[in-house]
Amino acid sequence: MTKYIIALAYRLETSIKYKNFKEFTYNILENNAYSKKKYFDTSMIFLVLSTIGILIFEVNHKNLRILNDYELFAVIIFSIEYLGRFWISSDIHKIILDDYEKYQLLNKKYKISKSIKKIISNKINFVLSPMAIVDLLAILPYYRPLRLLRILLIFRLFKILRYANSLKEFLQVFKERKFELFTLGLLYITVVFFSSTVIFLYEGPEGVNPNIVDFFDAVYWSIITISTVGYGDVTPITVEGKLVTLVLIVSSFLVIAFGTSIITTGLSDRMEIIKENRVQSETSKMKDFVIVCGFGMMARYFCEELLSIGKKFIIIDNNKEAVNSAKNLNYLAIQLDATNMQTLEMMGINKGANSVVALTNNDAVNLSIVLSARALNENIKIISRVNNSNSKKKFEIAGVNESILFNDVTAFVASEYLGQPVAFEAIDGILLNKDFKVVIDEVEILNNSRILGKNINLVDFRNYNLTLLGIVNLKNMNDFIFNPTNIDYIVQKDDILIIIGFKTSISQLKSDLINLDFRI
Description:
The chain is of the alpha/beta class. Helix content is about 55%, strand content about 10%. The longest helix is centred in the middle third of the chain and has 47 residues, at about 240-285. The protein is elongated and about 115 Å long. About 20% of the residues are buried.
């Protein structure tokens, strides 16, 4: 028997279908980063609320068959979900294989009973976990022998905690502050027990206070008073009872203030994590976006340009002030260490990101970002700011695609302005003036382009009121060919035409170049 179980365990370990199905089950039930989980969560929340609505409806209405059928459908879904969570709570075959291989290594006879004990222990831990108990209580009342327990259906409301991440984060506050809350609980119990005992001693004797008959009435009065509800159905009559009430009221202020400060502090600390989770969630939905590392003055202008052309981006900076500054501009930003590979992976370097731009003012930090990004993704485009020109070679070795020599560029721009101020102002106005209708744009030559493999002079740019400045040849190390109309240039795939003109004219040219009816 043991031999067959081990063989089955190895078969499951090597089965790709089994692994894929279990991974899918885990993702849909537990992995908040999984894109399709939100649809499952929304459906389950609707199912929970609708069944609670049916429970309320049936209080004063007769049972309808369609509602019973819907209840059956909901219970089947809840049961499948419960069994799915039970299944993924641990890997039975891995426990068996780990123990078996360990015994083989030690040349000892494998005893499957020890593995079974581990398996049962893991499954019991799952069954006894709070949320698993809630799941079970949401299912059990449906079955006939337990129909009297239908009131337990109200526990289905607690299932919503599984599907609402914000509520889960709120509950995490109680878990993190359990010591403080335990202390508060002891204080609360002490105050309640003390005040209940005293009030019962003075008000409890027969004939003194008709509203306090037993100790439970005293506890009830104490809790109602300390919670500042004060129904007024139980009130002290004796002087001693009134004095206890005054002491209890003052004590209640202290207890409430203490409890409020604990929860407020916990929520404040947790809010940062909630914000990080929101940013991660937003990032997971984005496609073809840029990861901007660092948010200084250069990054600020860079992000403005990305925004103007409709390019999506996420900002990563370890400085809290820089992140807050980015958020004030309504940019998607997160306070993390961009040199950390886990951070870049979390932000989607292997998913939706198409570029990484390192723009910090520290070459060592930028180099570390480049190394991390290139190690994670060999094909992603990496651009980095280089403050010291002597470091450019290091960045190239690290795998950067383009280097921005910050100081050299600044010096070059300054010298050009001094040499040709009028021409410089004209170019500056075209590039940076948002109200100026003339723009410099690029037209990429794709497989379906009508000009592919033909002479560039066949395109009448004057007819479009456009000027061709040059062509970037990607196959020749991004070589820039200035004014190619003079050399009868043959257009190649992935060439990029650099054109100056009106936006509408450039859009028309792009459309015509892929239009089958367009004649050259």
